[in-house]
From TrEMBL:
Classification of source organism: Bacteria, Bacillati, Bacillota, Bacilli, Lactobacillales
Protein known as: MFS transporter
UniProt subcellular location: Cell membrane
Entry GO terms, CC: plasma membrane
MF-aspect GO terms: transmembrane transporter activity
Record key words, sorted: Membrane, Transmembrane, Transmembrane helix, Transport
CDD domains xrefs: MFS_OFA_like
Main location class: membrane
Biological source species: Limosilactobacillus reuteri
Amino acid sequence: MPKTRNRYGVAIAGVILHLMIGSVYAWSVFTKPISSYTGWKETSVSFAFSLAIFCLGMSAAFMGRLVEKFGPTVTGTISSICYGSGIALTGLAIQSHQLWLLYVAYGVIGGLGLGYVTPVSTIVRWFPDKRGLATGLAIMGFGFAAMLTGPIAQSLMANVGVVNTFYILGGFYFVVMLVAAQFIKKPRSHELPPAIAKNAERISLTDCELTANQALRTRTFAFLWIMFFINITTGIGLVSAASPMAQDITTMTASAAAVMVGIIGLFNGFGRLAWATLSDFIGRPLTYSLIFVLDIVMLFVLLLFKTPFIFALALCLLMSCYGAGFSVIPAYLGDVFGTKELGAIHGYILTAWAIAGMVGPLLLSYTHQVLHNYYVTLIVFIIIDALAMIVSLLIQRDFVTHRQTKLVIK
């Protein structure tokens, strides 16, 4: 009998892979140094981040298919090549003062190579008894990455310069991701303990095992896409302007706001694990409803209170909900559609992330530029989160009544 692999080892490899690719969220650390070195406008440099998020989400649908067809080790290897070379080419773009190459290298090549879906569906298969915990662990690494990358990148830029920093990071990401990818493999029939394997026989809460194409034709998928899009639009919009918003609405200083940004990063990371684990006990439908309830309450707090501590606490809780959206959705999809083609279905749902990554920051920055305040945008966020909560309750009702056929789009 072939050697049995440890499922926790697979999970750790997935966390490491996400720690590398999640460094995309540390882009703000590079914005001013790149602008100073090249003379490019900061808005032009910042666009590379939005482009990377867009390409990540849109390519995830394609990558999800590849995970199912060729396996996570192959797609993880492809991701290591694309992301590592994209980061290294970013250094070349800065060195040669080629803005178009920055967009191609970091936005397109790096974005296509992020391989976000590579470990998630695989880890769910290894942990059919703890789907929420498993996806929370994997995606938690993505949330914590910016917190780790930021200080390291700052130190590298201070010692070797911004260009060499990207060359070093590109090589490092490539090697670590390449090694991690070799340990991310789907479980074989004998590798799950009997009790867990028996639990794995429970296909889904709706007794459905759908292909990706079949899932796309259900009303449930449309509802989940809308909920995920709204959650990310709100969260990523707040992330993009957390520091200036805190300074504008409260009396918080720039240095205090910088500390707050680091703290909310912790809540983003831990929120992914905490909410996903909670969903194993109370169910994914109720968990998502609670996420939107907390979102709405905390957005009202941002509107009504100008005390720095209360404002920062509200933002921290909002960021935990933002992270929760990412970690709960894969297990939610597994509950609804089964795990037969979970990688592909998860990839399709991530297109909502791609669009939200463009809409959220642009909506917030545009309204602030025109109206010179953040209040209107916060009200808009409250309205759309209320809509998402209604959609979540509709899905929850259908779960309770077990009328899955009602959700199929004819």
